[in-house]
Write a structure and sequence with these properties.
alpha/beta, 2,3-Dihydroxybiphenyl 1,2-Dioxygenase, domain 1, four-stranded mixed beta sheet, 3 helices
C-alpha cells in the first residue's frame, strides 16, 4: 500500500501562510514550531479533512512559485469562490471549465497554484 501522508510547501512567511490556509480554505492547525525547519525558521503543520498534513515551511531564500500545482477538493467551488471573492481574495481563474475539468484557480500568498474543484460540479460541468 502507498498513501501520501504529508507534503511541504516552501513559504516566505509561515504565520501569514498559516492564517491564509486556515482562514480561506478551512485547514486545521496540527502544530507549529516557531524556530524549526531546514533554515531554522518557522513551520506550521496543517491538516485537511482527510487527515493529510501540509507543512508550510518558511525558507530564508526566495520562493519559486508556479512550479508546482496543488489540487484541492472542496465542498462547493462556486460557493467558496463567492465567499472568498466577497472577502477580497483574488482568483486567477473563476469557476469555469478547465482542461482538467470544472473548477477555479487561486494563488496562495507566495504564488503557489491551487486548483479548486468539487465532486458535484466536476461531474455536472466538467
Amino acid at each position: 500500500m502507498v498513501k501520501l501522508d504529508h507534503a511541504a510547501i516552501p513559504v516566505s512567511d509561515w504565520q501569514r501562510s498559516r492564517d491564509w490556509y486556515i482562514g480561506n480554505l478551512g485547514f486545521r492547525l496540527e502544530f507549529e514550531v516557531g524556530q524549526g525547519g531546514r533554515d531554522g525558521l518557522g513551520v506550521a503543520a496543517l491538516q485537511d479533512d482527510a487527515g493529510f498534513t501540509l507543512f508550510l515551511e518558511q525558507l530564508s531564500g526566495p520562493i519559486q512559485s508556479g512550479q508546482a500545482v496543488y489540487a484541492l477538493q472542496i465542498d462547493d467551488v462556486d460557493d467558496l469562490h463567492r465567499r472568498l471573492e466577497a472577502a477580497g481574495v483574488a482568483f486567477a481563474v473563476p469557476p469555469s471549465r478547465q482542461f482538467w475539468g470544472y473548477g477555479a484557480v487561486l494563488y496562495d500568498p507566495d504564488g503557489h497554484v491551487l486548483n479548486l474543484w468539487d465532486e458535484r460540479s466536476m461531474a455536472a460541468k466538467g
